[in-house]
Amino acid sequence: MAYQSIDELQTLLSQEVFGDRQDSKKAAGRALGTFIETIMFYLLRQWGENDSIAIERPLAEYGHQEITHNVEFTLHPIRTAYPAFEITDDTPATARKVADKLLLPATYALTSNKVINRGVIQNACVIGSDENSIVIASPDCLTAKGMQMHANVLDKHAYAMIECKRVGKEGDSKGPQTIEKAKQGAYVAKTTSSLQKVRNDQGGLDGIYYVDGKAYVAPYDQILNEIIFNGTPQQLRDFTLSIGVVSNHGNWFTADNQNKEMKVLAQSYDWLLFLTDEGLAEFITDLLRAPRPRFKAVRDAFISSYPPAGGPKTDNAFTKKKMEQAAHFALDAYFAANISRIEGWFNVISPHGGTLQDLREILVTLKNKDWRAIL
Predict the structure, then answer these.
(1) 3-state secondary structure of 50
(2) Which of 101, 169, 257, 320 lies in the 20 to 30 Å Cα band around 129?
């Protein structure tokens, strides 16, 4: 890494981009959190999960559907895949325009979202929903007349959820919300799937799930693999794989030197990934500090999203949810060209001995289940 620590890199960002802010380092710290979410979104796209992704959707607790939690990303079964279509004019690609292109039934309640508006893409844009499904539209590529895009109807059931957690530093000490963020993540991970974790009298983790009121208990890892690879419809119907992504920056320590917060998360999520300082620094260096010409649009979108204090306000076009369109396609190109190196940015904290390729295989396996017969 070209920097001694991610803290040094945060200081550079605070000087170069946020130098006119009252608390420039805190503003740079919030931007670091955005980078982690952005990395995960474009990684999932490269893993072939683009058509299944929803962003910040409510995820219900198992057995308590009235209690929901918004998480960064959820992955959903595809009910219907619409063929590609083109939006040809320069006005916003509203939910109504897309619905008309799809001949979407009137039973769907349309949103006020815009897939594209003034050169800004809304990632995983929700067009409409009914009781059991949501309609997501995604841009594919620029055309001579406008933009090609496609849409999918997704079941509201999520077969996986992904949360990103990062806490910045205050000087040389941990941020005050470190343990609270760990607790929040742990609670959501433990309550949103039908496969529940219980601690046994030997200190190990057992899994418990119910079918027709009857409880089944076995070592957690054993049941988890059984459900993923050979699960019955009853086992899969309310199962949601939980994936956590944490970054270091002096608070989560390292994969080999876990503090209390990391241990809480590691025993709560099915998979816990650790985004290294080196990985985050490479992303910032390659795309924001010294980008090659083909990736310069990423830096431009980032800088323009944070105008000088006191200047005219602009909408943030550099988030997991909204991205300037040239930056969006540049990010896709960067991740496609560097996917092997990017996967090396992560360490797997749990399960012990797991690899990123194992997780990718699991997500593909879940995506390809016969969900029509299951749900």
Answers:
(1) helix
(2) 320
